[in-house]
Every structure is written in structure tokens, then in C-alpha cells.
Amino acid sequence: MVDTRGTYDRAEEVLNRVRAQTSPRAIKAHRRRVIGFFRRLKIAILGILAVMLATGVIGSMMPIGVWGFLAMLVGMALVFFTVMGWPSAAEPTPEQIAKSDLPALPSKTERWLEAQRPALPAPAQRLADEIGIKLEAIGPQLATLDPREPAAFEFRKLIAEELPELVDGYRKLPEGLRRDSRNGGLSPDKQLVEGLKVVDEELSRMSEQLASGDLNKLATQGRYLELKYRGDSSEA
């Protein structure tokens, strides 16, 4: 007998992955990589032109000969491959995020979360996209917030501590155990999704309270990740 349920689950998983890969966040990340490539290409072309100009200036003052021409070609090649092959800026680590100034915290967390995205299941990838969008939106609001405010502490705790702990805890699990439920509880995959939902909801609440200027309400309504994720994952 054909396992229709299993076939349906596999088809749903493939569909979820396609949706995750074509999400607005994924498209934006791809666009940023393309823009970065063309920015490097522009710098490389300018460098090549500078080498040609320098060679022309030297050649106007003294003959450069065949060896000078070859040196120009070598210099052009070195400039091109050095610029195009220069490593991109390393993604921030959770330790660096925790030490970031408040205004830089959303953008660094967004970059870090984007780097974790490929290792997450499709439902969690969509939530990571939503969290990234909210982090991008909340950045200007935090720029005017006093880092000594309880509201700033609340945001830093959620984004710089609890979110990285949740994602890192999941990634440390062997892939074969991520879908398994233990003792009738949620699987690590589902625990991750539930935890990201809490983070997403908290960011929405924080953004609304920051927009309304009610910092006292924001500071006193804090809700932490009420999950047994780390306990369950350690048992797994």
C-alpha cells in the first residue's frame, strides 16, 4: 500500500523549502550579495584604471619597454584578483552581539540570524525572516533610546541572549534528533519554531511600545522564552 501520508509530508516539506528560499528576506539577502559583488567589481575596475594611468604617466617620462608593459599587466591582474577575492566581513558572533552598542544591536543580530538561516527548518526560516524585518524596523527607534533605560535592558536580553541561546542550542543537536519527540513533548524542531514565535511577538510588542513612547509599560511587561528548550535538548 502506498504511504500517502508520508508522501504528503515529503511534498509539504519540499514546498516549505521552496517558499523559504523565495521569501522576501531571502531575496533581499541575495540582492545584497549581488550588490556587494558589483561594488567589488567597480573598485577592481577603478584599480585597474589607476594602474594603467600610473603606467602611462611613467611612460611619458621614460620608456617602459616590454618589461614595463608586462609589469603593468601583472599589476592589473593583482589588483583585480585581490579586490575580488578579498574576504567579506565576518558575520558577528553572539559574543560580539552582546557587547554591541544599542543602536548597532538590531543590524548585527539581523546579520547573524541571516547566517544561521540555512541550518534551520523551513517554518523556522520564515520566522527568522519576520524577526529580521522587525529588527530592521526597530533600529531607528532604538537610536534615540537611552541604553540605561529598563526598556533597553529588556530588548538586549531578548535579542543578545535569549535568541542566540535558542538557535545555538538547536544547532548543536545532531540532525537525526531534531525531529524526534521525547516523552510526548515537542520535538526540537517544533520547540525552535515556538521559541522564535515568542521572539517575534515580543519584538512586535516592543516596537509598538517604543512607538507610543510608553517605556514604563515596555519595561514592566517583559516576557521571557517560557520554553524547556535547553532542558529538553540536553536530554536528547
Blueprint (SSEs and pairs):
Blueprint: H1 4-21, H2 24-61, H3 65-85, H4 94-98, H5 105-116, H6 122-142, H7 150-171, H8 188-212, H9 215-220, H10 229-235
Helix pairs in contact: 1-6, 2-3, 5-6, 5-7, 6-8, 7-8
What does this entry look like structurally?
This protein is an all-alpha fold and 236 residues long. The chain has 2 domains: 24-85; 94-235. The protein has helices at residues 4-21, 24-61, 65-85, 94-98, 105-116, 122-142, 150-171, 188-212, 215-220, 229-235. α1 runs parallel beside α6 (122-142).
Structure summary:
This protein is an all-alpha fold and 236 residues long.
Number of helices: 10
Major sheet summary line: none
**Overall helicity:** over 70%
Rg value: 25 Å
**Distance between termini?**
33 Å
Number of domains: 2
Q: What is the N-to-C succession of helices and strands?
A: HHHHHHHHHH
Counting helices, strands and paired strands, the structural category is: mainly alpha
DSSP strand count: 0
> How much of the sequence is in beta strands?
under 5%
Shape: elongated
The mean pLDDT is 77
pLDDT below 50 for ≥5 consecutive residues: which ranges? 219-224, 227-236
Features:
236 residues; mainly alpha; 74% helix; 0% strand
